Amino acid sequence: MQTSAGRQDRHEYPAHWEADVVLRDGGTARIRPITVDDADRLVSFYEQVSDESKYYRFFAPYPRLSAKDVHRFTHHDFVDRVGLAATIGGEFIATVRYDRIGADGLPASAPADEAEVAFLVQDAHQGRGVASALLEHIAAVARERDIRRFAAEVLPANSKMIKVFTDAGYTQKRSFEDGVVRLEFDLEPTDRSLAVQRAREQRAEARSVRRLLAPGSVAVVGVGRTPGGVGRGVLGNLRDAGFTGRLHAVNKAFPEELKEIDGVPAHRSVRDIEGPVDLVVVAVPAERVPEVVTECGEHGVQGLVVLSAGYAESGPEGRERQRELVRHARTYGMRIIGPNAFGIVNTSEEVRLNASLAPELPRPGRIGLFAQSGAIGIALLSRLHRRGGGVTGVTGVSTFVSSGNRADVSGNDVIQYWYDDPDTDVVLMYLESIGNPRKFTRLARRTAAAKPLVVVQGAGSAPQGHAVRATRLPHATVSALLRQAGVIRVDTITELVDAGLLLARQPLPSGPRVAILGNSESLGLLTYDVCLSEGLRPSRPLDLTTGATAEDFRQALSRALADDSCDAVVVTAIPAIGEGSPDDAELAEALRSAAAAAPSKPVLVVHVELGGLAGALSAAASTAPARLAERPPAAGAAQVSPGTVPVQEDSSQSCSRLIPAYPAAERAVRALGEAVKYAQWRREAADPGKVPEYDDIDEKGAAELIGGLLARGQGLTLGTEETCELLGKYGVPVRRALPAATSDAAAEAARALGYPVALKATAPHLRHRADLGGVRLDLADEEQLRRAYAELTDLFGKPEELRPVVQAMAPRGVDTIVRAVIDPAAGAVLSFGLAGAASQLLGDMAHRLVPVTDREATSLVRSIRTAPLLFGWRGSTPVDTPALEELLLRVSRLVDDHPEVVAVTLEPVVVAPQGLSVLGATVRLAPPPARDDLGPRTLPAY
What's the pTM? Predict the structure, then answer.
């Protein structure tokens, strides 16, 4: 943004303060600094503010701004005087400013760290959360300018503004003097202020998505005059779904005399529509979209679904076109699904929205579905809709979003909506990439504590056109962090649907113990083997023989469910031949009735060539909301409509006992295994543990040391002495390693350390490579040391190439590795594994987000596949895992307390039966990356 060249600002225009925000009602606004070019906007804004609001701002009648006022409120130095404006359509709707003051209350400069702050919100926009959003942003600006405290004077009658300050969550002091309330509050974020900010974020983003998914009126722009075409097709889909709101067709090429098309009112422009339009589906060529966006913005449209292609997916020119589309729409406070989107669906009877390319409205149900890719969205809807060819049965969706290029509304926004959506019990997501892993894991953890979240994560990069930090973490590490956040991570859309159906239909298992019963011994044994491979604890299969009747199945299932040693039951069934064999409907009813008597344990069916059984099991109940079952059929209706499924009268009970059927034991058991792990996570999440305090940690001393070291440059890897000093301040001692440039120096070092010693080559190509012979251990005397030194130099080269060191021997144990790294997108991550081939070749490392709690440290140690080596595998002596857990917690504290510590590696850490020894350590310092999650609420930048 350019401003007049003659302004007397002490700093350049701070473009990084510009941001788009979602307001309380789901609309958007742009926040930016006020400049000298805003004089006319400021005057116009002030003229639209009521006399009462002016009085509250200036404590006296103040009908208009003088030229001096306008100059003062538009000329800022962006340090001691700052003004921000919230804008919609380029016009001001609210302003906030601060002026730095000294202890005497008069204008001041740094080092004064207090400022007076004042707001003014246009009356038409009060109650939308504008002031709260501005407070977050002006507070972040003030902290950047070394202001630590705000003061505000408010008239007692101005209760709305007092509430803005008191509800913000900052530590504050309140006084009353001369008829004015004076509020003073620190700007350092607190747990409460962050909680308030994130609660507001959730409500605002959820409402912004709700406005898209539950519109009162929809217009389709680009409806062709002849059948066919995308726009005409979407209009037909909306009409055929029975959309409950007002529907409009728009095409500027419509003849003026054309009043309707396909029974829908026709218009040449969105501007011609009488009354509000909440949602517009855009199906015109990309070059015409800007014109449509302008029409929609001027008409007050709340959101757009842009089906048009030709954006970021098409190359650099398309990426810039996409950025301009988002900027253009946000100017008017609109949110966007797309571009290049497949569309959105809401099956609620109150809405019945099919603003998508899907030819039919999916069956109503309780699964929320998100897919970036239209092709994947079609595949998921198809699998959930059909009865055969995969996981069979009637299961429906509550809402569906296919976001295309995900330029604006993303998976994070939709998770915010589904978190407290009463019609959604399970969330299924196909994510080609995760643009903001830090925020996604935070939202996922909260959502997973309330309802299952199942994710297929592609290995794609950040969405094209987004100005977001890319994660440097490997795909496997990101997946592990998602699991830590409670996400059920699966690899294919088949597994996504398999897990989703089980979680939507059945209760969570209370443990891993599985009963298996059925009429096929071989299928039962196969299921048993798969359970073992998935880490479950199956009992021996109960073979009912091929002559089993429906009553035999019912009794066996009832006994299994009543057994306290059973947490879940897998029923296997093959076609039975012979007199008395149960038909599909009879068997399905027998299983359903037995399962209904034990509603706390999940039941799954593995069937072979029994499509009728799967259908019968599905017909016994429904995942549709209970109100659908209660709706009486239309008069004269001969059969159930395609949008509903038959249910029994006790729909509230049968809804939860719809038994999923799978065509293969592997698929059923894999879904059950994911449910078991998720249930365990839910139980552990209820008590996540705590981050312990250690009395011997010198946080202040570490901060001073880091500050002094960073003064040397922007980033550096610490030397040995500096590394040991910094780690020592957090109670992490590192065994001394003395350089040995010659054999004599090696002998002198050994005498200083005491025998026995180890001789190590520390050159990069030999470091931590004992397998290459670069490490010699248990050297008991000088003779052995000199001989080993000669062997190393003969084998690998000159000492200056080897960089040999001498180190005192540590007690024998298991070699491990501890790492911590700050990723610009995901945040600080702590990793653990066994040193050597286990971590380097097999990638057997476990990961946790920092700060790590005591319970998480315990689980981290046990999460790697080679963990049995720490606990006495094959008769070996168990090592001191409590000491290892304490080490992990101390490293976690270090990187959490000091984000300038961007990387720590401890390798090897030898964990002995008593205690441990850190034999090698490296630490890297750098200016910390910005913490988006601690700053004010913003939408992704463009």
Answer: 0.84
